[in-house]
Amino acid sequence: MTLPPAMHVYLGDMPVEADVDALLAGGRGFAYGDGLFETMRAVGGEVPWWPAHRARLARGAERLGIVLPSARAMDRALRDLLLPHPDAVIKLVLTRGSGSRGYAPPSDVASVWMLSASALPPAPRAGGLVLRWCDLRLAMQPALAGIKHCNRLEQVLARAEWRDEGIDEGLMLDVEGNVVCATSANVFALREGRWWTPPVDRCGVAGVCREWALQALDATEGRLTPDELLASQAVVLCNAVRGILPVSRLGGHAWPSHPAVGDAQRRLAEAHPAFPVTDRGSPWA
Amino acid sequence: MTLPPAMHVYLGDMPVEADVDALLAGGRGFAYGDGLFETMRAVGGEVPWWPAHRARLARGAERLGIVLPSARAMDRALRDLLLPHPDAVIKLVLTRGSGSRGYAPPSDVASVWMLSASALPPAPRAGGLVLRWCDLRLAMQPALAGIKHCNRLEQVLARAEWRDEGIDEGLMLDVEGNVVCATSANVFALREGRWWTPPVDRCGVAGVCREWALQALDATEGRLTPDELLASQAVVLCNAVRGILPVSRLGGHAWPSHPAVGDAQRRLAEAHPAFPVTDRGSPWA
Prior knowledge:
The structure is a homodimer. By secondary structure, the first copy, chain A, is α+β, with helices and mostly antiparallel strands. Chain A has helices at residues 21-25, 28-32, 50-64, 71-82, 153-159, 208-216, 226-230, 259-271; strands spanning 6-11, 14-16, 35-42, 88-95, 112-118, 129-133, 169-173, 179-182, 186-191, 194-197, 220-221, 234-239, 243-250, 253-254. In chain A, the strands form 3 sheets. In chain A, strands 6, 7, 8, 9, 10, 11, 12, 13 and 14 form a 9-stranded mixed beta sheet that branches. A 3-stranded antiparallel beta sheet of chain A has the order 3-4-5. In chain A, strands 1-2 form a two-stranded antiparallel sheet. In chain A, a hairpin with a 2-residue loop joins β1 and β2. The longest helix of chain A has 15 residues, at 50-64. The first copy, chain A, is globular and about 55 Å long. The termini of chain A are far apart.
């Protein structure tokens, strides 16, 4: 592994002593966002969708040419982390590791990767999510679309558009004006009794919960304009940490509850024990 | 500063002890490429273009909403690094620092930033650079265009398209087919005795050497098709580490040397002591 011969690290205006830090600070994850990540929900010491997360990570690593750690090493690392953190949000970041300065990917370097556990998110707003439209449009980059890479400034800027705690999420359009996703969730719309979700071939992420829902709900991929979304019978957001969440409002538009949403949540509860259906429907609803 | 309550770091299949590393590993630079960088050339213990680099960094920080460290702290850090590394490539990475999980930018956190020194690059190929066209097209994202942010997977993928050491750089087009830049340099083309360079309002980086050349060479910003570039009298690449480098070949096309290139290099030599003109013209030519 090649590291710069000298490196100083700072926090605000103050220097920080750098040791093994050089491994991360000299790495391409830090320099270029040259990596991939997975955000997963653990329940009872297990990550029920780990095979799907690992498969998506492998697809991303293949696309970017990053060396995937062995399944054994990842399984062991996950087990070690889950033991003290059985119910948590688990994040895995896989980066290309370190190399000499410059964009050329080094050959034969070990990937640098990291697992971390965080607290579960608070329960979402009762009665459904409140959304806004984001001003920032997603650029079209088929080479990076679908995978969960670490170049996320578009999402950071979109999420920075509001600080109002009355807004739960923002919907993003692509530069052509089609609905793509929320800043950290996929979106499904119920139209004539059928679930639709935008394709992620030009921008957006192929979410693990989205993949599950496409199959389990027999949903259809298709481009959606904002007007088509607003004319839908119901709208939900989904991701692998929060499951399926109904949307109650988007700007000035409101949706009443729809039985198809509860039905989708019940199917998810059968598939993933972290999202059980309670008396009030989903614990999130 | 909020860090994940648990964090493990790995190199390849092996765990690495994490201490202050958490600062970097838990940071948004690592997670999202949520940062900016400057790559500079030091000569005789100084960075002659430091004011221009700092100004671009400030513009990027303003655009992304990242807190800029004080000029005093950056000046001092640079001085400390230059003392043992008077002639080097200096890299500054400024990231938003750490916050809780999720895209929402934390408020009131200290930026994490890093300075490093690397060896100067080897002298470029005598007689001019050999280029290729990259297949990967740059996406159009005006919100990120021009600034030198850390979301660089497009450049990494473009640079990964070739390993042939006979190729020095690759030219990139945008999705509409206009010439934008090389993977790590701006491009100028001489047309009817006048230097032209593509605008960087939709993609690409406003290079510090490019900014200098726009002024010093009285160059014009304008979109260039590949055919227009190939029909130019001369083509050069430029950046703040290597100065102005003539292009001798691009795919099957060859350019003879042109006196305007030597003239541009002489003007640069007057402006920046790291790029002196020697008997053979520029030390790089």
